[in-house]
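pipeline/complex-builder :: batch 7 item 3
reading input block
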Amino acid sequence: MSVREMLNTHPMTDGQVSDALVACIEQCFRCGSVCASCADACLGEEMVASLRRCIQLNLDCAVICLATGQVAIRRTSENREVLMKMIDACARACAACGEECARHAESHEHCRVCADECHRCEDACREALTLMQ
Amino acid sequence: MSVREMLNTHPMTDGQVSDALVACIEQCFRCGSVCASCADACLGEEMVASLRRCIQLNLDCAVICLATGQVAIRRTSENREVLMKMIDACARACAACGEECARHAESHEHCRVCADECHRCEDACREALTLMQ
Amino acid sequence: MSVREMLNTHPMTDGQVSDALVACIEQCFRCGSVCASCADACLGEEMVASLRRCIQLNLDCAVICLATGQVAIRRTSENREVLMKMIDACARACAACGEECARHAESHEHCRVCADECHRCEDACREALTLMQ
Amino acid sequence: MSVREMLNTHPMTDGQVSDALVACIEQCFRCGSVCASCADACLGEEMVASLRRCIQLNLDCAVICLATGQVAIRRTSENREVLMKMIDACARACAACGEECARHAESHEHCRVCADECHRCEDACREALTLMQ
């Protein structure tokens, strides 16, 4: 639980970071790594030509999740509008990627794992957003 | 002009990528590097304690610009809603960072250069968005 | 255990990815997020002027860990020399950051957590390297 | 030339940053964007199945170039050993990617552009390394 531990000892948060935001940050880093892996696993499949869209959505989702995690983990200055826009973009990227991966979940186990991870990350982003509004 | 050259030879664009999107992509990578540099230059200033907010906004803007550039450069599959949300988030990050840097532009030349770059990137993002709507 | 789950279902690994490499990948993403957080927590400290070096090493380590994790997770094509150089660079970045953070571990709990994380990541990188040689 | 402009106004460099390092930083950001684009262009080709290795090397090179640019642009604290290891890893990633792209340069114009860019980045990295030794 390293993100929670870090944010509890941050000089400007007084441990006041919501569980929803901590979960969102952790899920962003986790989903970013899974999507990077799924893009690569899809690239290795025989039917790669029919997985093009899945690969691009995975790559986009990986980049956006990792960027969102990095922005959300910074608590020194309030930059709430930008953070909310990033979390919203991340939720949409996860929704799009999760939906595409779910289509190949029966043929490719990595797409099933990735779809689940994307849905968890989308949910975590939406819960964090709800609390920030 | 390597981005234009690359997109002109992309198998799925037929050179049909708008100048506005090419400018947006180039400006994102450029502004991302300048913001990373400005965060570091501010960190090196004697008055670092009063530049905290500037440093955080610079770091956020750097991450968001580089992520947006990477998402926008991919043209294989249409993922327009996510792309538009990222470009919008990027425009807001640039606006916030440019505004903060402009406040220290007289004391710190690197903040003046960075503020100019952020404003150019914000404009490029908004023009690309307008065309996509 | 999402990285292990992903790599077990990758079409080209046959579950043959060593535990050491899986641990290295997971630790890279984890350490990357912790270092990004520690840079920000240091920036929020009153004594920020004396934490400049810690902040830069944290930012470098965050970028290098996240990059190394992304390169290491790709298993489609062998690019062993580049991967080993990245893991080696990552081990050195973690060593430098962990050493600097350890100096402030008594004053700043976030530096203590980060130093521990860096040392774990350095160890994981070295073990993965040893197995690859 | 925004990187030169930024480093000239950095409080700790006194304009003492070598042209070789400035060129290396600029080339890293440029090559990072071109490789991200080439991965995507290859993904869009009919013969994508035979471009798998090219795509992975492009993705690796993009991540490593962008990470190296971000580490090299920071001048506040000396972290020379880590920086040199990253520039070295980047030179190798560019060499591998440039070599692979050169193989498809006749069939795919984007691979020709990317191979050229990789070779320029490799050269810029090696020149910066030579000066730092």
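note: Chain D has one domain: 3-132.
queue -> next item
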